[in-house]
Write a structure and sequence with these properties.
The chain has about 200 residues and is an alpha/beta fold. It has a single domain, classed as Rossmann fold, CATH 3.40.50.2020. The protein has 7 helices and 8 strands. A 6-stranded mixed sheet has the order 5-4-3-6-7-8, with helices on both faces. A two-stranded antiparallel ribbon has the order 1-2. Helix 1 packs antiparallel against helix 2 and helix 2 crosses helix 3. The chain is globular and about 50 Å long.
């Protein structure tokens, strides 16, 4: 990890976006770590640093617009859109039963290439679901970018479905920073890593 990634990993710990204990995940599984990147929206400087990391990764890709995953990806997508001056769209998780009834919000045209942005990936199910909504609307999506990969099969599942996933950091990398900086012990790191399988 470079200095910017290490610095952001520490910021995430300091703002309480990474916590250790016993937590029930969206999947129903129990985890010794909880990562809540939605907190970035309450810390503008941290959000700005995250947007810079995303932007560095995105500059290596070819696309027409950004697509934010509902719901956690929307604040991050907005920050990246502003930082890069790139248009942003987002898919609605449910049908809009009034007005135009659109499933994809924002200005876009069928055939445009979009990169999906989200906060993190665990199993990859929610990211793939959001991508399928965009594809149903005529957008071409074959890449996704997240801040953190929890390394629990999401990358592999997305790639099996034709989506290349890029992350700013992995959970293992963040944990290594926390151990090095004395935020957690080697034993705590081992406990979290054992829980990933």
């Amino acid at each position: 990890m470079n200095k910017e990634q290490e610095a952001l990993a520490l910021i995430l710990y300091e703002i309480g976006a990474v916590r250790f204990g016993e937590f029930k995940l969206h999947s129903g599984k129990m985890s010794p770590i909880y990562v809540d990147l939605r907190l970035l929206a309450s810390f503008p400087q941290a959000m700005r640093r995250a947007a810079e990391l995303y932007s560095a990764l995105l500059r290596e890709m070819t696309f027409d617009l950004l697509a934010a995953a509902p719901l956690a990806g929307l604040p991050i997508g907005t920050a990246i859109s502003l930082a890069m001056d790139v248009p942003l769209v987002y898919a609605r998780p449910t049908d809009k039963g009034y007005g135009t009834g659109k499933r994809i919000e924002g200005k876009w045209e069928a055939g445009q290439r979009a990169v999906m942005v989200d906060d993190l990936v665990t199993s990859g199910d929610s990211l793939l679901g959001g991508i399928r909504l965009l594809e149903a609307g005529g957008l071409v999506v074959n890449e996704a970018v997240v801040l953190l990969d929890r390394e629990q099969g999401g990358k592999e599942m997305l790639e099996a479905n034709g989506i290349k996933l890029t992350s700013a950091m992995t959970l293992r990398e963040a944990l290594s920073v926390y151990v090095f900086e004395g935020k957690i012990t080697d034993e705590e790191q081992t406990r979290v890593l054992d829980g990933l399988s």
